[in-house]
Amino acid sequence: MKQLFSFIRKEFHHIFRDRTTVMILLLMPVIQIILFGFALSTEVKDTKVVVLANTNDDATQRIIDRIDASEYFDVAIMAHNSSEINAAFRDGKAKLAMVFENHFSENLKHTGTAHIQLIADATDPNAATSFMFYAINIINNYQQDISQSQAGGGMIQPEVKMLYNPQMISAFNFVPGVLGMIMILICAMMTSIAIVREKEMGTMEILLVSPMKPIYTILSKIAPYFVLSVINFLTIMLLSVFVLKVPIVGSFTSLFAVSLLYIFVALSLGLLISTITNSQLAAMMISGMGLMIPVMLLSGMIFPVENMPPFLQFISNFVPARWYIDAVKTIMIKGLSITTVMKDIGVLVLMGTVLVTISLKKFKVRLE
Amino acid sequence: MTKRFGSFTAVDNISFEVKKGEIFGFLGANGAGKTTAMRMLCGLSIPTEGKGTVAGYDIYTQPELVKKSIGYMSQKFSMYEDLKVWENLELFGGIYGMSDEIIKIKTDELMASLNFEEERDKLVKSLPLGFKQKLAFSVSIFHTPKVVFLDEPTGGVDPITRRRFWEMIYDATARGITVFVTTHYMDEAEYCDRVSIMVDGRIEALDSPENLKKQFHAKNMDEVFQQLARKSTRKAD
Questions:
Q1: Do the Cβ atoms of B67 and A206 come within 8 Å?
Q2: Which pLDDT tens digits describe chain B residue by residue (237 residues)?
Q3: Residue B167: burial class (beta carbons within 10 Å; 0-12, 13-18, 19+)
Q4: Which of B44, B83, B97 sits opposite A209 (nearest CB)?
Q5: Which of A4, A299, B127, B154 would bridge A321 by S-S if both were Cys, CB 3.0 to 4.6 A apart?
Q6: Residue B94 is nearest to which of A6, A201, A208, comparing CB atoms?
Q7: Does residue B84 belong to any structural domain of this protein?
Q8: Position B107 in a domain
Q9: How many structural domains are present in chain B?
Q10: Does residue B53 sit within a domain?
């Protein structure tokens, strides 16, 4: 036991004497949460609109007013001809154009049909889809209002409800993603680097010659990063609740338990990487390229897994973050109980067991 | 003992005994198989064939007991650079299961005998190479092992520091520690009680420096070594 404690103390010395690393490790979640929560927001707000309405009549004006009043839009330009619309798109002064046909109001009253053309800048397709959806909604609302006042009847009135995230705040999606990424980064990358550093420095030989049990070496390497991961988990929770206003709807205990499981999987991944590499650089490359990119692209953090081609969907099954992020979303955002994420938990337990078994075996082989 | 890596025989059927309290020099050109042989004795590598005992324990069946009885200093400088001098001692004392009081007493003794009092609280990376090497040696015998293995311990240090280093080795043997040392420096070979010279994985000569010089009609160990090393067909790497 004394061996283990002497060694764990040494590991903490390594980390805390390296001020830059500590700062990076502790500030990284803060920066990522702020980046993803604010800068990389996919929410649609104050989209600039250019309007072309040759007959400025009653109905046209009412629709324009409603668009302008909505928090999603800002009527920036009143164009007089179509070339001004083209210019507005080219110069990036507008993302959406609304073209009202001539005699809009009259046509609506007398023939019952009037046309509005909506043109969107679709260079960012997700944003274009969202604000188009909002614009059509506003126009539909107007139509319902006038048809009700005219007692037309027979209108189907869709009522849209955005479940779990009524305001469509993107942080609801990013917080679980950032959690999944930070944990992998700290646990897997830092653990593998810490173990490989001993190999590179030659101290691993001394340890292997000494009566130090290999399992103690592993445990003490893991301990500090385990502590750091828990600190990071708590930081992210605090930030998301108090800064991003993403509430923890479900049970915090369940969330914490699932996170501990994920940390365990990430640590064993780091261990495995350390057994197959011999230089810190290689360990960093493998955890960087091999873990970060799949976590970002295949976990459902940014792109929904359901929309991927079948091959990538299959690959994503092997990304631990996918299961963890799913579990966090279910517990934290949807507020469901831990029993609903049993599948995620099962997969993570399986992954962790397999990884730990392989890496312990491999680690022993080095001892011979 | 024999060690093969695939079709390459790194150590070819070597056999020797080292007496208790002796300084045993293990010489050979780069790639002759010294380090591989030493690694087998330390339990870092398993011999393909043959048997061995270290400090009376079998290297196959009692590796844990072997590990407790030996000290090891590798050719790479292998202290923790971002730990203080006393923290390194405390760590290795802890790894070898020494109690806190004994670690403290021995640390005090060691600092005094090395004139290291001022460096005690310094980070190892701030020390000059000569200091580091002395410290690494002190760490390798900190738990008073029966045998200490030194793998090219004096690489890259100046002659004066090397001289001091050898004084420390003599002190260690005076305390009953057996020293097994590999080296490139032929003047250091003269300090050993007995030396073995490895060529292409085999031991070509094994005797005291005096006898070897007589046997090969050489003025010094360097000439002995040159005569034997010339036979080598293996390319040094």
A1: no
A2: 898 888 888 888 899 999 999 999 998 888 888 888 888 898 888 888 888 999 999 988 888 889 899 999 987 777 888 899 999 999 999 999 889 999 999 999 999 888 888 888 999 889 888 888 888 999 999 999 999 999 888 877 888 888 888 999 999 999 999 999 998 888 888 899 999 998 888 888 899 988 988 888 888 888 888 888 887 776 554
A3: exposed
A4: B44
A5: A299
A6: A6
A7: no
A8: no
A9: 1
A10: yes
State the nearest Cα–Cα gap between B76 and chain A, in angstroms.
6
* A203 touches B at CB < 8 Å: yes
Q: What domain range includes position B194? A: 3-78+146-229
Residue ranges of chain A that CATH labels 3.40.1710.10? 47-149
B177 assigned to some structural domain = yes
CB pair distance less than 8 Å for B82 and A13 = yes
Residue owning tokens 């004139």: B115
CATH superfamily of A47-149: abc type-2 transporter like domain (3.40.1710.10)
The count of C-alpha atoms lying within 13 angstroms of the C-alpha of B178, restricted to the half-sphere facing its C-beta, is 16
B125 and B80 in contact (C-beta within 8 Å)?
Answer: no
- Quick check: A73 and A47 in contact, CB under 8 A? yes
Q: Which of B26, B8, B48, B51 is nearest to B188 (CA)?
A: B26
C-alpha B61/C-alpha B78 separation (Å) is 28
What pTM does this model have?
A: 0.76
CB contact under 8 A, B74 and A202: yes
Distance from the Cα of B189 to chain A's closest Cα (Å) equals 25
What CATH number corresponds to the domain at position B72?
Answer: 3.40.50.300
